[in-house]
Task: structure prediction
Amino acid sequence: MLREGYEIYLVVMVSASVFLLLLLIIILDVRMSKIMKKLDKISRDASEFLKLGLTHFKRKKK
Result:
């Protein structure tokens, strides 16, 4: 009787651990995708700012 209860407890704990691990991976993936979107936006804005600066300084030198 104790052996059966222990096996059920073990199965429940392993299942809960796997579920929590998958949930953690999904949450981290969502956060990383949000961060990557923000970094891409910053990169685009920085490249546009650099282009504007270069055209401004090129005009001044002439």
Q: What stands out?
A: The helical segments are 2-61. The chain has a mean pLDDT of 88. The chain is about 95% helix and 0% strand.
